[in-house]
Amino acid sequence: AVRLRVREALGAPEPLGEVRVQGWVRSVRSQKEVLFLHINDGSSLENLQVVADPSLENRDLTFGSAVEVQGKLVRSPHQMQNMEVQAETIRVVGACDTWSFPLKLKRRHPLEYLRQFPHLRCRSNALGSLLRVRSEATAAFHSFFQDNGYVHIHTPIITSNDCEGAGELFQIEVSWARQSAEETHFFNVPAFLTVSGQLHLEVMAGAFTRVFTFGPTFRAENSQSRRHLAEFYMVEAELSFTENLQDIMQVMEDLFKSVTSTVLSKCPDDVELFHKYIAPAQK
């Protein structure tokens, strides 16, 4: 049997013979003559419908359980979905107790509630869509710079310098230094989590005409608001031999257009989810 992800099964141009799909059950609906499942593996916002004989149902086949379905990929008679799987076997890989499972069927949980369950929140539509968009955007950033001849530089996360007053720094301390009466530093100088890779990129720009970095940065700003993140990923680039500000503005415009176009083309359903439910006034 051909192993398919849900995204691949939904986008298949034509029916296939024996296929195998693995994922987590989003809904179970048992009728007298047919059993319907909807499963998702995180590759798509849309679920894959599985049609099976009621005899394949068992007590462990519940919302949230992990399953492996084997059968035939056929065209779906429903207009909302291109393909579906006619199951021949359904194996429950991991059972789920629906009573204690914090995510409930057909309920839109607030983000504040989902933050309590970091090991399960990525199964929600909102967080799943966010992570898929981030993944495609990250790949698009790298693709743009690589296609335009930039060298990717891995700037250090632990550094001894600030970056032109970019923000408050997290200072690093080693555990054994706390037991010493004298002020002891691991590198013999104070060390911090980076607030920017700019200074290291500027050094590299003395040997490479085009460089960029994309990595985590940290800001120890004394604020607990949603507008201030202690950790986030930042894209930075340096160009040598620029003639004027227009050169830099053109790169920024091309980068923005390229990444936005990629995200909109590869994650249209995920973007629409945010426009509809998460930030309806931001479209």
UniProtKB/TrEMBL annotation:
It comes from Ceyx cyanopectus (Indigo-banded kingfisher). It catalyses: tRNA(Asn) + L-asparagine + ATP = L-asparaginyl-tRNA(Asn) + AMP + diphosphate + H(+). Belongs to the class-II aminoacyl-tRNA synthetase family. Residues 131-266 form the Aminoacyl-transfer RNA synthetases class-II family profile domain. The keyword Transferase does not apply. InterPro entries: Aa-tRNA-synt_II (IPR004364), aa-tRNA-synth_II (IPR006195), aa-tRNA-synth_II/BPL/LPL (IPR045864), NA-bd_OB-fold (IPR012340), NA-bd_OB_tRNA (IPR004365). Keywords: Aminoacyl-tRNA synthetase, ATP-binding, Ligase, Mitochondrion, Nucleotide-binding, Protein biosynthesis, Transit peptide. Gene3D superfamilies: Bira Bifunctional Protein, Domain 2, Nucleic acid-binding proteins. Its EC number is 6.1.1.22. GO terms for cellular component: mitochondrion. GO terms for molecular function: asparagine-tRNA ligase activity; ATP binding; nucleic acid binding. It is found in: Mitochondrion. PROSITE patterns: AA_TRNA_LIGASE_II. This is asparagine--tRNA ligase. One of its GO terms (biological process) is asparaginyl-tRNA aminoacylation. The keyword Transcription regulation does not apply.
